[in-house]
Amino acid sequence: LGTFGRAQDTSPKPLDAAGKKALDVDKSLIGAATKGSELLANLTYLSDVIGPRLTGSAALKRANDWTVERMKGYGLSSVHLEAWSMPEGWQRGSAYARIVEPDNGRTIALASMAWYPGTPGKIVGDVVVVNAKNSKELEAYQGKLKGAIVLTRPPSKLTPWQDIEKPSGKDGFQFKGGDKGGKKFGGFEFDREFAKIRSEFFAKEGVAVMLTDSSKHFNLLNMTGSWSGTDRPSASNRIPTAFVANDHYSLLYRLATRPAPAVTRMEIEINNKFVPGPIAVYNTVGDIVGSERPDEFVIVGAHLDSWDLGQGTLDNGTGTCVALETARLLARCGVQPKRSIRFILFTGEEQGLHGSRQYCQQHKADLAKFTAALVHDTGTGKVTGLGWFGRTALKSILETELASLKDLGVADFLKRAGGGSDHASFEQAGVPGCMMVQEIAGYRFAHHSQADTL
Description:
By secondary structure, the protein is an alpha/beta fold.
């Protein structure tokens, strides 16, 4: 893809003989893709038979083994699993909650944040809103939170659901559309340092449970979370924490902010299990070997792991099966690229891009021979562009080499990329990283929720 950072002519170049040959390859691939596909069959199997694929789970390992067989069946070379290590596993159990005062009969829809402990059986506690934005304001709650079930912020102000599918932002794929404007996490300004201080304060004061707004329409639940590190188990230093459906969180907030002497109490029980580590987790890897430079690579990838509230179809069964279908089509059409194309299905993406980061670390000595890493991770929507990290030197190359994609509706080959997926690990390691820019197609509703289904 040339050299980066140098001033150069960015106008498209006319096709030479090699370019015309490449265009014929493009037409062959596009024709093959329109005449038959195994994408939906693979996606159905991955979703219905294997199901959700939480990092470290047996289901994820079954998915690894299945993708190995798919790659081998499509004719890829050197297909294998590459291991990396995670410090502890986690298994979701049941989660139940209801309001007991006022006795309005309301059960509450919630789901534990991943890699957080459950409660010590069924507990009953006062619901308390802690309106503290800094350490000084926390002091007002000293001695008042023992056994409390805590809300730390007002309900999210959701974008009207009719507008949720509309694009937001002029660059890249923007899917976090639940809240209006600002650089936010979960709908509110997020200060990591204060969050750490607050958690330590809550633990010292004996808070029983923390609840946070799922910030989604239609009472869909949200999900995220990861292990706390390698030095000590997450169960030992975390307060049970759960996402609550937006309408239900709003109800709890209204009740808990009534004037005294009104009291709001909840009954809650969360059951989770930690699996002691270290645990081996795997990336699935397979190659189409280059004809002239077999030791140089372009990576085509996606992440195989998913959250466990749904089936992991949208995020990221779609990307996984697009990568597999790409491999199948290239092999079927007999394409012999000059450089090798390496297909990688990463794991641990949802907990912090761990699989791709580990891959870059394990292959650090070889990264100079990696030309680019292209990742698919934004659902079912039509691809409309390619998102890079400001690499303007690519413009003339991409516009010339990928001109045949314009007829398919790919209009911009050099959009600005967002982070948040495995392409970012390669970019940080010095390898140009690209993620597809796609139409939203329901992503904002289903993302990380129980609606992520086939």
